[in-house]
């Protein structure tokens, strides 16, 4: 176990955020209330920065004579998830590019359909509400991981930083990033607290949410198979269960297509094959070196990819717990190694909140409150502007 995982061994259990399950109902409620009070500053900070982004978007939308609700609830990939909730999946591979909805994993549209069946309002509204709700679950999980490792102040700063990422507006759109981050964060927290069955269950659900769910499964499985867990039967079961969600969906698509490689054939029709990073390097050189006037959003994406790799190196230097390093490492490997479309890659990395831990730790340890305020304030305004620009000026999907 790395030093980071043992930074706070004497923190009383009553002050630690809970992982799901365990104890009688009254005890669970008491622990949840205490944990929620402890996380309250982080959640309020997250709410504040996201409301700032929403206000900037609302003003920009008004100037362009659009609507906030359709922009957030029904644009781009949101339409694919709503289509799956309404009509189900395709039953043939087809030959048309970017047209087969089997590329989109099922948990989010299933939740949309289930909740919409028992609540008023359209499925688009339900999808947006679910995304917002899960964004707070994700923010709480992000805080829980940071608090567990480095204390409350670091957890709070980490949560706010996650809320001011350049593409953080997606957290309040009809997309899967909030749901996936919530599952990933609490799975990682469950690993840090030794709750292997919960970690595996959440990892399996993450594998039903996004293709990058394999990163959560790898994190749980690798951590469970470390020498420090030898002889722990729950850890062994967790290592086996964690990848089942991702594997089940890939196998189901293969069965539905009548070919073992059906899922990968679908991804090929989306031009989303793994090429080891050749396309990423080509685009980086194109937009940052050779192109005289590249589009602003593509420059932002390129810089964020470079920064993400640098942050991962800092995470390695900080000797973060293995589960966090495996999760962010596999996430980067999948996203940067893909030969698919370039511009959504910053969004694909949005769940990688542990990459922000070096920055959060540095800000939390500084005694200059003004420095923290300037960094977070500038990041908030930048995130609000980039989010609105991405949805209203950039011509492609976020």
SSE layout and pairings?
Elements: H1 25-63, H2 68-73, H3 77-87, H4 107-116, H5 123-150, H6 152-163, H7 177-192, H8 196-206, H9 213-224, H10 233-241, H11 244-257, H12 262-269, H13 278-290, H14 296-317, H15 322-336, H16 345-348, H17 357-365, H18 369-392
Helix pairs in contact: 1-5, 1-6, 1-18, 3-4, 4-5, 5-6, 5-7, 6-17, 7-8, 7-9, 8-9, 8-10, 9-10, 9-15, 14-15
Could you please describe the fold and organization of this structure?
It is globular and about 55 Å long. The chain is an all-alpha fold and 398 residues long. It is 66% helix and 0% strand. The N terminus is likely disordered.
Order of helices and strands: HHHHHHHHHHHHHHHHHH
Average of per-residue pLDDT values: 93
Number of strands: 0
The helix/strand class is mainly alpha
Task: Explain briefly what this protein structure is.
By secondary structure, the protein is mainly α. It is 66% helix and 0% strand. The chain has helices at residues 25-63, 68-73, 77-87, 107-116, 123-150, 152-163, 177-192, 196-206, 213-224, 233-241, 244-257, 262-269, 278-290, 296-317, 322-336, 345-348, 357-365, 369-392.
Which terms summarize this structure?
398 residues; mainly alpha; 18 helices; globular
């Amino acid at each position: 176990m790395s030093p980071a995982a043992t930074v706070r061994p004497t923190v009383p259990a009553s002050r630690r955020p809970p992982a799901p399950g365990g104890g009688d109902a009254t005890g669970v409620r008491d622990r949840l209330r205490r944990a929620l009070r402890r996380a309250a500053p982080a959640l309020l900070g997250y709410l504040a920065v996201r409301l700032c982004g929403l206000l900037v978007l609302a003003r920009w939308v008004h100037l362009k004579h659009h609507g906030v609700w359709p922009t957030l609830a029904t644009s781009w990939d949101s339409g694919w998830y709503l289509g799956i909730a309404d009509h189900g999946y395709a039953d043939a591979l087809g030959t048309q590019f970017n047209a087969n909805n089997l590329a989109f994993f099922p948990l989010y549209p299933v939740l949309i359909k289930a909740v919409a069946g028992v609540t008023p309002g359209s499925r688009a509204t339900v999808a947006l509400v679910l995304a917002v709700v899960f964004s707070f679950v994700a923010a709480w999980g992000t805080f829980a991981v940071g608090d567990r490792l480095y204390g409350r102040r670091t957890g709070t700063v980490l949560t706010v930083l996650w809320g001011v990422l350049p593409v953080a507006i997606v957290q309040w759109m009809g997309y899967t990033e909030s749901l996936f981050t919530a599952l990933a964060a609490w799975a990682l927290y469950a690993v840090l607290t030794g709750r292997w069955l919960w970690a595996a269950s959440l990892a399996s659900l993450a594998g039903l949410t996004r293709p990058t769910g394999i990163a959560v499964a790898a994190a749980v499985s690798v951590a469970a198979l470390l020498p420090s867990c030898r002889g722990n039967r729950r850890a062994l079961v967790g290592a086996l269960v964690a990848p089942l969600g991702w594997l089940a969906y890939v196998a189901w698509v293969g069965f539905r297509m009548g070919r073992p490689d059906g899922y990968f054939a679908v991804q090929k029709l989306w031009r989303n094959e793994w090429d080891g990073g050749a396309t990423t390097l080509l685009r980086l050189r194109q937009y940052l070196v050779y192109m005289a006037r590249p589009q602003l959003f593509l420059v932002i994406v390129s810089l964020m990819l470079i920064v993400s790799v640098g942050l991962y190196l800092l995470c390695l230097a900080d000797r973060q717990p293995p589960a966090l390093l495996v999760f962010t490492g596999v996430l980067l490997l999948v996203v940067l190694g893909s030969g698919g479309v370039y511009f959504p890659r910053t969004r694909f990395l949005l769940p990688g909140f542990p990459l922000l831990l070096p920055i959060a730790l540095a800000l939390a340890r500084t005694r200059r409150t003004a420095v923290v305020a300037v960094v977070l304030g500038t990041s908030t305004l930048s995130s609000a502007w980039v989010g609105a620009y991405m949805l209203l000026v950039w011509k492609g999907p976020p």
